[in-house]
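Worked problem 6 (solution included).
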Amino acid sequence: MKKVLITRALPEEVYPALEGLEVVRRDRTDPLDPDALRAALRDYDGVLCTLGDQFCAQVFADVAAPRCTVLANFGVGFNHIDAQAARAKGLVVTNTPGAVTDATADIALTLMLMSARRAGEGERLVRSGTWEGWHPTQMLGLHLSGKTLGIVGMGRIGQAIAGKFAPFNPTILYHSRSRKDVPYTYVDDLTQMADQSDVLICITPGGPETAGIVNAQVMDALGPEGTLINVSRGSVVDEVALVEALQTGR
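Solution. The predicted structure is:
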């Protein structure tokens, strides 16, 4: 019987699908530590892992003959796994590209509406007990209807975001590695797209190719009235430039 490690707590509905396997449940929410990563490769035939389980090249190098033959990653992105090092050791790496498409698109719209309508601020004001009642200039926000939405990455989730945002009658621009067969306007230059956008949403893969692509120039182009929503990897946004832009009001 094949022995499989589940590295995080999952919904109970998942486990019946694993009937016929010897399943070891690690019902925790924190990632595997370095020793556990190496043990996972040595002691199991397969590992169902997820974000934060850092299967880097050194982990594979430290396990001369891994028993494990498959790393089944729960999530679209798998930049926490060195896929090349895994293949060199005879492992297959899989992901779940469609599993969180709708949920992530919902979150992107939630963040857009919360930012535009300052919902988080409003809730904190009410909970603090200091709300003095409504007045015409209180917490004025942004009308999203008719605005220009720039999407960085027009894959499954990018397209789902665009579709869900359609009732707001927006102009939708997108920037990606290649043109897509979609009814939206492709913009080759990200800074140029930011300059034209009221809201810029990042939903592009992580990794070296996209690290820091939302840099100071892009933020300056978006401007102080613009809204930046990132539902991709944090590495996509130059964090130092972001902090500076916020602190200087740009």
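Discussion: Residues 101-117 form the longest helix (17 residues).
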